[in-house]
Amino acid sequence: MLFRSCTLLGALGLPEQIYAQRATALARQLPEALARQLAAPMPADMAAQVDSALQWVEAPGHHVLTLSDPGYPQNLLTIADPPILLYVTGDPAYLQGPALAVGGARTSPPCGQEVARAFARHLAFHGWRVIGVLALGIDAAAHEGALEAGPEGAGTVAVMGTGIDRIYPARHRDLAHRIAAHGALVSELPLGTGALPQHFPKRNRIVAGLARGVLVVEAARQSGSLITARLAGESGREVFAIPGSIHSPLSRGCHALIRQGAKLVETAADITDGLGGGPQRGARRARESVAVGHIR
Description:
12 helices; nine-stranded mixed beta sheet
């Protein structure tokens, strides 16, 4: 039997109140075995994770946001299963406000990456934060484009499918540092968690939840960006797709989205019009510089 953490929090209150409950009280909301487990003393491995997180958050630029934190991104509260907590490196304020997720193929050719870079640069320059997953190809190009918008741009956020202290792929370590300095890295996974396939669909729901819409630039039929687009649509977000050659396998995912109702995009104005306008250049509030902690 599955349950959502937000349901338990709604019924019993804050985490400290939940952990203060007896197993009999918890069993009214949970399966009995799970209620007994939650009421039992914290296992040693979990206690070690808590200690590591408390040490990690002491470093400059490191933050942990819980569901009850005022800084928790409000958009995530509208999805079906919001993360209980978020690890953030950088400025948590970048998790708020108008944002667009940009994703696509990891193996995109240079022309496709340049399209993603140009769209992201334009959107960030006009006040739209760019959300990605730090992946090769389209996502990396989108992050780079948003950073190229400079200090007046809205910045960029990378949602990670690893622990916040594990950069994947490793070649993007420098990009991750630049994102943390002009945006934020975010993960719900415990520190030290490596890259495992089952983590990526869960990560994609955070991407979709943070954004007001998702733009897919290039994607094969089985692309992970299509999962993000589906989750976005299910959460009431807009889905946009850029068409391509009928002979390219990397166009098939975008064409499938368009057939399913995604908005066909040729210019950045197609996106801002689809979202009902939005912020313009200079709309982003001034931010103090954020000291970025060490990323292994």
